[in-house]
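Structure ticket #2291
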Amino acid sequence: MNCRQAERWLLRSFDGRITAEEAEKLREHVHKCSRCQRLERDYNFLLPLLRVDAGAEPLPFFQERLQKKLAALARPTPEVIWQPILVRAATMALIGLIIITGLMILVLPVKSPAVSQSEALVFQSEEPFPEVQQILNEAQPEQRNLRLMFSSLEARELSRRYFP
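Resolution: structure written out below.
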């Protein structure tokens, strides 16, 4: 018999799960092997420590303290109750917002920005005031500025006047 098998049988012998023949072989091996003698002595020391003692009692007021802790753990806090509901509500609100925005983009017509009359003339490459073109083509800057000032004074419509 080798030490590995002897150790297995030694452990089984504590539970009473070996035959008489195996027990005899184990005793012979343990009597001859110092390593197995040391293992048997260690196991015999540890075995009583591992057995449950029926006489052990809990500390005083253990039951009351345990009941209080269990009651505190069993009661969910309001945050825990509302958190899943709020998460679902926020998710549904975002989905609704995305759907409404998408429908608005697809269904509502796109309004073109209002274009003023002068912008329309510029885009159509028309000259609204041919006389202004003549003034701007003036070679001398002093003459051009004077003509612009006097032309603004000659205008009878106030909407065409430049007011700084």
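Closing remark: The mean pLDDT is 80.
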